[in-house]
Design brief:
Bound molecules: 2-acetamido-2-deoxy-beta-D-glucopyranose
Catalytic activity: Endohydrolysis of (1->4)-beta-D-glucosidic linkages in cellulose, lichenin and cereal beta-D-glucans
Distance between the termini: 16 Å
CATH superfamily of one domain: RlpA-like domain
Order of helices and strands: HEEEEEEHHEHH
Enzyme class: hydrolase
Radius of gyration: 22 Å
Number of helices: 5
Largest sheet: 6 strands, mixed, barrel
CATH topology of one domain: Barwin-like endoglucanases
CATH architecture of one domain: Beta Barrel
InterPro entries: GH45_Enzymes (IPR052288), Glyco_hydro_45 (IPR000334), RlpA-like_sf (IPR036908)
GO biological process, one term: cellulose catabolic process
Structural class: alpha+beta
Mean pLDDT: 87
CATH class of one domain: Mainly Beta
Protein name: cellulase
Helix content: 10-25%
């Protein structure tokens, strides 16, 4: 009889051990580039091989993941190459800060998502992004804040500190730069991804998107150094919902067969 109880309990295990996180749905997007150390750059934010890289003021990777953020007097900043680039007219790669209502950072730090834009000038275009940061300041919707140099003002003037320029070259509060030509005043490493916003992205204003989690492509993990432990094994939301019940049903059925009543 105890053998059956053990078998029944073993069948319950999968539902207790595999966390399920949102893997698809509608989302809002906006822009940010604050030069701060990205939140997924700290240890322990999710189950991954390594936090995302932060950089020093020369855009060289820091090996110390405990280094403090440039937004609070430290020397760790956002790396310039964690920024978007176009593959062709309808497909781009990039990085984003994310948040899903009701979840915390272990759900998204280091995960990759396909974003299919559903409104604005980019409707019909697609990006694949890796999440390197967290945007908790929006609570009401799934959110991807696209990391675009000059795309929004720099919090705590970290960009001025990182690049030794006036913070005003990064633009106005909540807007960033207004015209493509202003991109040419940014530090060299940020100019091409700034122009991406006016070329490929058509300066779309907060377009909505459908998101779908995907396995991270090497071209993105190469820039962050981060691969999640569940990158190949994550459970899609719809099948996760089904599997919550099936182990219990199976265990209950086996218990009935063996004359044991669980509960
Ligand atoms: C700039 O960032 C703020 C704060 O996260 C956000 O509310 C705003 O929508 C952003 N602006 C754009 C144009 O994305
Ligand atoms: C960045 O590079 C310059 C020129 O090589 C050097 O003087 C400076 O110390 C470097 N800064 C850091 C933080 O390594
Ligand atoms: C654009 O690039 C993506 C990714 O490589 C590819 O899937 C898609 O077919 C390309 N589209 C065009 C129009 O070339
Ligand atoms: C976005 O998702 C909605 C709802 O599932 C669907 O009707 C729509 O076709 C999707 N659009 C794109 C561009 O994927
Ligand atoms: C990224 O790719 C380049 C070229 O293949 C390689 O030299 C570099 O070590 C890679 N970086 C990481 C963090 O994997």
């Amino acid at each position: 009889m105890s053998k059956h109880i053990i078998l029944s309990l073993l069948l319950l295990l999968p539902s207790l051990t595999s966390a399920s996180y949102p893997t698809s749905g509608p989302a809002i997007t906006d822009r940010y580039w604050d030069c701060c150390k990205p939140s997924c750059g700290w240890k322990g934010k999710a189950s991954f091989n390594s936090p995302v890289f932060s950089c020093d003021s020369n855009n060289t990777h820091l090996s110390d993941f405990d280094a403090g953020t440039g937004c609070n007097g430290g020397n760790a900043f956002l790396c310039a190459d964690q920024s978007p680039w176009a593959v062709n007219d309808t497909f781009s790669y990039g990085f984003a800060g994310a948040s899903f209502p009701g979840y915390v950072e272990d759900a998204w730090c280091g995960a990759c998502y396909q974003l299919d834009f559903t409104s604005g000038e980019v409707k019909g275009k697609r990006m694949v992004i890796q999440v390197h940061n967290t945007g908790y300041d929006v609570h009401t919707a799934n959110r991807f804040a696209l990391a675009i140099p000059g795309g929004n003002t720099s919090y705590a003037a970290a960009c001025a500190l990182q690049y030794g320029v006036s913070n005003t070259v990064f633009g106005e509060a909540d807007v960033g730069l207004i015209t493509a030509s202003q991109c040419d005043k940014l530090p060299k490493a940020l100019q091409a991804p700034c122009h991406w916003r006016f070329n490929w992205f058509l300066d779309a204003q907060r377009p909505t998107a459908n998101f779908t989690r995907v396995e991270c492509p090497a071209v993105l993990t190469n820039r962050t150094g981060t691969i999640r432990d569940d990158d190949k094994t994550f459970v899609t939301q719809s099948s996760a919902q089904k599997s919550v019940y099936s182990p219990y049903l199976l265990a209950g059925f086996l218990a009935l067969l063996s004359g044991i009543v669980l509960i």
